[in-house]
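Margin note: ligand = pyridoxal-5'-phosphate.
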Amino acid sequence: MALTPTKKIWMNGELVDWDKATIHVLTHSLHYGLGVFEGIRAYPASGGPAVFRLTDHIKRLFTSAHVLGIEIPYSLGELVEASKDVVRESGLEACYIRPLAYLGYGEMGLNPIPCKVDVAIACWPWGAYLGDEGIANGVRLKVCSWARHDPRSLPTAAKGTGMYVNSSLAKVEAVRAGYDEALLLTTEGYVSEGTGENLFVVKRGEVLTPPSSTVGALEGITADSVRRIIDDLGFGRVRETLLRRTDLYMAEEAFLTGTAAEIVPIASVDDRSVGDGKPGQITRAVQEQFFKAVRGEVGQYKDWVERVD
Ligand SMILES: Cc1ncc(COP(=O)(O)O)c(C=O)c1O
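Resulting structure:
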């Protein structure tokens, strides 16, 4: 998806012009993939743009950095304010925000300890990541041949830049085969997640999701919000359980959740329709409530919405 430039990018404490936000080719993270990032969305709300669970996302950035041994030289509060500055400066009502902490220029070799840590925050307009048609009518998924990386190989609890090689390999395989998105299984064959989304399944009226820590999935902030919405709407508590790919073939409904993707119904997996292939009742209800919540229109979730102005 092509980028639409905005005015400024926050880099190490300063707002710099979009075109000047550049790095040296010998930047450490570019070579060895050790960095952490976030994906956050701002939505139009009464009183100006509002960032969905901004503080929780920045907290996860710090947690990811802690897990990977990266020391971010700013406080949580500073990066929350910097994110708001970037959105305010862009003049956009709705946008995607990308904080990134990476090992900068000056050292080489696999020992990252001496490297300085640089931080940047950009934002840009970004429509539906899996397409408007996907949100409306569902996406076609393919179980891919790449297994989700094992928690013994990489710390799956961290949103680390290099870990997304796994997601990119999976995405390319699915897209080249004509599907919208890939579904990754663990090395044991249990359902893990999409390349950038968590997964929920409805079976016999019960909403199920794989346990993130066991299957190496990221603990999604959208997924956390969706669990609460599902419970509050009266569909019951979401149950964590290990799922096989056939559980998806036999599900009544299934959907993906993520900041970029938002809430996306799954129409089919490996060319087997999920339910009747159309977004189900629970999926629709969750979508409706989520899209109201992110705009600050649901009183009980107003804490999730952090206004820029
Ligand atoms: C691999 C992966 N899983 C799940 C998610 C969903 O997480 P969130 O809802 O916090 O965006 C993301 C997106 O950040 C992701 O990259």
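The first strand starts at residue 8 and ends at 11.
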